[in-house]
Specification:
Length: about 210
């Protein structure tokens, strides 16, 4: 729960090749040097231990695919500060290019630590948002950044399935969904819509994807 509280969550806006987008934004500090954090988000072996196993042409302009089906192209790569990729998911995703991007920015801190900022932009009108709000992707990113924290701290990743099935994992996901609801409200979301989205997101993650 301390790891959940360590992150700051906001919503914003962006412009993608497909048009106007909303953003899900996470900022948090890791007690690790920037080169180590950069290695953890770009080295295939380490990336697979906190996110998902990855294959592809892992260089600027190359295409990648994660074990869960997420895929895209590497749009920007500026070691050790910035990585941006297109981010598509689902059987029909390739019919809608330019609708989703993820950018990670790293800033070295004064004590040898690193601030990580993750921004996931999705085109306005994408189908998940009306039901789940920012928690649709936000809870998943909270879980992955928790695993990254464990990996950077002691080299051991978190078993996602085991954690999500545990009482602590269930509480973590409930609190994450509520925190994304607060970010949605702060961004001007309708209170009734936000409440419904938090309820749907909590049910989705608590029931393993069966809302």
């Amino acid at each position: 729960m301390d790891e959940l509280a360590a992150a700051r969550r906001t919503m914003g806006t962006a412009t993608l090749p497909a048009g106007d987008a909303y953003t899900v934004e996470l900022r948090r500090r890791y007690d690790a040097p920037v080169d180590d954090v950069w290695d953890a988000i770009t080295d295939p072996e380490r990336l697979g231990r906190w996110l998902k196993p990855v294959t592809g042409d892992l260089r600027l302009g190359g295409a990648f695919e994660l074990d869960g089906g997420e895929h895209g192209e590497i749009l920007r790569c500026e070691p050790p500060r910035l990585l941006r990729v297109s981010w598509l998911f689902g059987p029909d995703a390739d019919e809608w290019p330019g609708t989703s991007e993820v950018e990670v920015r790293l800033s070295p801190g004064p004590a040898g630590d690193t601030e990580l900022e993750l921004v996931h932009a999705a085109a306005v009108g994408e189908p998940m948002f009306p039901t789940y709000g920012p928690g649709a992707g936000g809870v998943g990113w909270d879980l992955h950044l928790l695993t990254l924290a464990r990996l950077l701290a002691d080299g051991e990743p978190l078993d996602h399935e085991e954690f999500q099935a545990s009482p602590t994992g269930q509480e973590f996901m409930r609190r994450s969904a509520a925190a994304w609801g607060e970010a949605h409200l702060a961004a001007g979301g309708d209170p009734d819509q936000v409440a419904a989205a938090v309820k749907a997101t909590t049910a989705f993650y608590a029931n393993g994807g069966d809302a």
